Amino acid sequence: LTSSFSSVVTIDFDVYSGWLIRSVHANGATWFFVFLYAHIFRGLWASSYSQPALWCSGVFIFFVSMSTAFLGYVLPWGQMSFWGATVITNLLSALPWIGTDLVVWIWGGFSVSNPTLVRFFSLHFILPFMIMALVLVHLVLLHENGSSNPLGLHPQTGKVFFYPYFFIKDVLGMLFFGAIFILMAVKFPDKFMDPDNFVEANPMV
């Protein structure tokens, strides 16, 4: 627990290009959710919820991704990390009968402490593999059920070739957003980080 914050400082200042690796990781997570929300809103516009299995698998991916992001936010062990973990996990205490015991079980004690951080680190490493498996399930369901068709185009005559139309569009999109991502990671690495998280966690503050 005592080395969590100092290890992040070491990565930022002592490891060669460590700040860049951390910036790519943190900003990459932010961009991941930008595209995830765009995908969700596109699904709402296209009435993708009319296919329950496909929609539910996507919602499950969203919740697992949110959990992974929350766990990662706690790991640097700054002030916002500590209080974020305390507040969010305490929400479970509202559950009847089992809430309080569940919070103590997650914490591994009577407050957010070393056992909590070890568990969160392990889950933060494991859950991305679960996300990849869920994405494969999501793609299989999409392949079986087909995508939604809000414009009502004929399934055979209303098609265009993937290459060159979608291929060029996707390549240009990746180049455009990739350039913005690299610019943010290099020039504005701390843009989406809370200033309080650069202060080591102290439960008394």
TrEMBL record:
- In the UniProt record, does the keyword Lyase occur? no
The Cytochrome b/b6 C-terminal region profile domain is annotated at: 152-205
Q: Name one GO molecular function term.
A: quinol-cytochrome-c reductase activity
GO BP field: mitochondrial electron transport, ubiquinol to cytochrome c
Q: Name one Pfam family in it.
A: Cytochrome_B
Q: Name one GO cellular component term.
A: mitochondrial inner membrane
Q: Which InterPro entries match?
A: Cyt_b/b6_C, Cyt_b/b6_N, Cytb/b6-like_sf, Cytochrome_b_N_euk/bac, Di-haem_cyt_TM
Q: What superkingdom does the record give?
A: Eukaryota
Q: How does it sit in the membrane?
A: Multi-pass membrane protein
Q: Cellular location of this protein?
A: Mitochondrion inner membrane
The portions of this protein that span the membrane are 20-41, 53-75, 81-108, 120-142, 162-186
Record keywords, A-Z:
Electron transport, Heme, Iron, Membrane, Metal-binding, Mitochondrion, Mitochondrion inner membrane, Respiratory chain, Transmembrane, Transmembrane helix, Transport, Ubiquinone
As given in the record, the signal peptide range reads: none
UniProt cross-references to PROSITE patterns, sorted A to Z: CYTB_CTER, CYTB_NTER
| Domain Cytochrome b/b6 N-terminal region profile stretches | 1-151
Q: What is its main location?
A: mitochondrion
User: Subunit arrangement?
Assistant: The main subunits of complex b-c1 are: cytochrome b, cytochrome c1 and the Rieske protein.
Instruction: Provide the function of this protein.
Output: Component of the ubiquinol-cytochrome c reductase complex (complex III or cytochrome b-c1 complex) that is part of the mitochondrial respiratory chain. The b-c1 complex mediates electron transfer from ubiquinol to cytochrome c. Contributes to the generation of a proton gradient across the mitochondrial membrane that is then used for ATP synthesis.
- Name it: Cytochrome b
- What is the originating organism of this protein? Pedicinus obtusus
